[in-house]
Design a protein that fits this description.
57% of the residues lie in helices and 17% in strands. It is an alpha+beta fold. The protein has a three-stranded mixed β-sheet with strand order 2-4-5, with helices on one face.
């Protein structure tokens, strides 16, 4: 009887853990699926704006980057983890779009220590994007004139990936 009880308890614990893991996966999928609808709308509006101004070269460039970003987001939303390499490619596309949209009013840099191998480190998709978006929208966009700067630095400490995101935007009171 004791053996059966312990086995039943183990199965129940395993089922709970699976359920908890499934719930976490569903939460992550929901977060990834909601790539800011305002961002998508603003991108399409920017493309339209380039077309209306007859800036077809800029519209084409913007549309190409936008479609690559959307394709990557949709492909990566199926996975719980993606390589840091893929995450940084998505982040670069996102930043290029925002930079174009805001008339090149800011520049950015992504720096990695030599010990960071982006092909072998796996993280949840769109992990850094909300923080970078926050820096752009609440710091750099409101900075008067050009000269905005966003720096993203990656390093490891043991088995931990450290990411530092800094901007020279307006800040908060």
């Amino acid at each position: 009887g004791l053996f059966v009880f312990i086995r039943w308890q183990k199965k129940r614990l395993i089922a709970k853990e699976r359920e908890r893991g499934l719930l976490k996966d569903l939460e992550m999928q929901a977060l990834r699926a909601q790539m800011n609808p305002h961002f998508i709308f603003n991108c399409l509006s920017s493309i339209n704006n380039f077309i209306m101004k007859n800036e077809t070269e800029e519209a084409s460039d913007y549309l190409t980057k936008f479609s690559r970003l959307i394709r990557m987001v949709l492909n990566n939303s199926k996975n719980s983890y993606i390589s840091l390499e893929d995450e940084l490619e998505m982040l670069g596309l996102y930043l290029e779009l925002e930079k174009l949209r805001f008339g090149n009013r800011f520049a950015y840099g992504i720096h990695m220590d030599n010990d960071v191998d982006p092909a072998t480190i796996f993280i949840p998709p769109l992990l850094f994007q909300p923080f970078v978006e926050n820096a752009v929208w609440h710091g750099l966009v409101h900075k008067a004139g050009a000269g905005g700067r966003l720096e993203i630095s990656l390093r490891t400490r043991g088995n931990v990936l450290l990411c530092n995101i800094e901007d020279n935007g307006v800040g908060r009171a």
